[in-house]
Amino acid sequence: MYKVLKATFITIWSLFVLFPIMWAITTSFKPEAAVVNGATFIPWLEFQPVLTGWKAILPGPDSLTNLLTPTLNSFIVTAGATAISVAFGSLAAYGLSRFTYGWKKYSNADIIFFFVSQRIMPPVVLAIPFFLVLKQLRLLDTHLGLILVLTSGLMPIVVWLMVDFFNALPREIDEMAMLEGCNPIQAFFRTILPLSKPGLTVAGMFCVIFGWNDIFFALTLTATKVLTLPVAVIALNGTVTPYWILAASTVFSIIPLVGLAFVIERFLSRGSLGGAVR
Amino acid sequence: MAKITLSNIGHSYNKDKDQSTWALKPIDMVWESGKTYALLGPSGCGKTTILNTISGLITPHQGRLLFDDKDVTDIPTAQRNIAQVFQFPTIYRSMSVFENLSFPLVCRGWKADKIKARVHEIAEILDITDKLGRSAVKLGADEKQLISLGRGLVRDDVSALLMDEPLTVIDPQSKFELRKKIKAINKINNLTVIYVTHDQYEAMTFADELLVMSFGEVIQRGTPEQLFEKPNSKYVGNFIGSPAMNFLPVESRSGEMFFGSTKLQVKDSKGDLKGKALEVGIRPEYVSVASAPGENVLEADLLGHDDLGSVRVLKCISGGAPISVKIPRSQGIPASKKLHLKLPSEKLWVYQDGNLA
Lengths: 278, 357
Prior knowledge:
Chain A is mainly α. In chain A, about 70% of the residues lie in helices and about 0% in strands. The interface of A and B includes residues 175, 183, 194 and 276 of A.
């Protein structure tokens, strides 16, 4: 009985969660008639799948818009911001986990809170200051400008996650490495970093998701030269775009993240967390 | 190898001004090269603080640390050439056994063939040659601890080997084997070894000298025999030996010691100690059951006994003071509950306010 209830609940919940995605996927392959003459759901049975929607968003004779360039922009910006955030964020987190900093009554905990507090402010508060700063630096509508802005939001996530991760790794490992002839930086790179893959992967994944999905800063701080994928997809919404093209663009924009999730899921379940001690 | 000198070294973790609260109260101490020392004491008495001060994981609040005649107080850990084995086996999980053992040599920039030869040499001594290719994570706790130790031994520049309760997580059978191996290795390498433990047997089997610590201070330093035979305080008397030393309250009357109405002859008499809180101490090993009253013989009631392998501990009470008597098990339990206990004068020590008079 319990099993039946459980299976029923999981089925209903999965349908609820997956239905919009499934519908977007099927719609992206629908011909015009299958969309405008009432709802249809099942391909080959209710309609014959066609590539009209997909041809419209990719370069070619039937192209309405080209999403490949925005995809490349999104890729550059996300990869750049993620790389900087993970590299510097994990170094900062290691320092905060292993060494004591302080000035007057402020200590490590306050520094960590300072990092996290960067995410407390709503982005809209930051939009104008960022705009003015980037304008001064002539970085408006550039990859670098957007990377720097995104980094300011992603690094706190990395620091926050990695401080906890490093705290969970026994101090004896880096103490031992130092006893055996490493300086603190070598101890970090040679002994702690190889053990930190699971933590870095999770932190990196969060950065990629937040970076890839960012729309607010991309919308306010870039224009034509660095058009990112979410902005390009939203732009399609602003015009009278047929549903099948919108559906194709939406599905297209989530493919990289879904693919990444599959790759990382395998890696995470394989990498065992835990200390080197005992 | 190096002579280690602690000159007025003290440490407080919270930088307290009040020295009485320090984790390590200022001490002056010299550890000779090539000898094995055991630091003994309850948890939190400052043993690990001393080790970490020597290895540089802690910078002492005050004082100077010298290796031979070189001041190393401000030298970073990496340059002190200390090998340290922690309480829990510390291995680099991402590496194989071979990579673990070669790590210190890689850090020192040794050439690959030299590293290989040296690692094999040490693996031979530790008897883990067949496990060199395996992932270090997959080994048992005792083998992991061997690798921790091995990483200390592969280096040819070690000033001192510090061991912080290295056998705590090892099961008793492997403990015996590992202890034997560590001892053998120390002999070969002639290292200065400082061994921290709260297990007195471990300390006594390992060390040339013992240092008993309490609340950040070294209470007594000496050979295992000295500490057993003549503890300088009640604390050491209670800490070393099992069961603990017997202490009986006494009075000094014109230079002679009286326990109740019984006069006790003490060989090493200190004269008149009137007006002080006096006790005499004697090891349970040296108390014997006498057949009749006599000199230095107390009357006591037998309360019960504990059998500990080949020995038996009789629990007695005399004039309100508990007395333990350690006898061979073969001697049998006395038939009468009323006993005469002989306290030989040459094994009795007088303690005044908790310290040897």
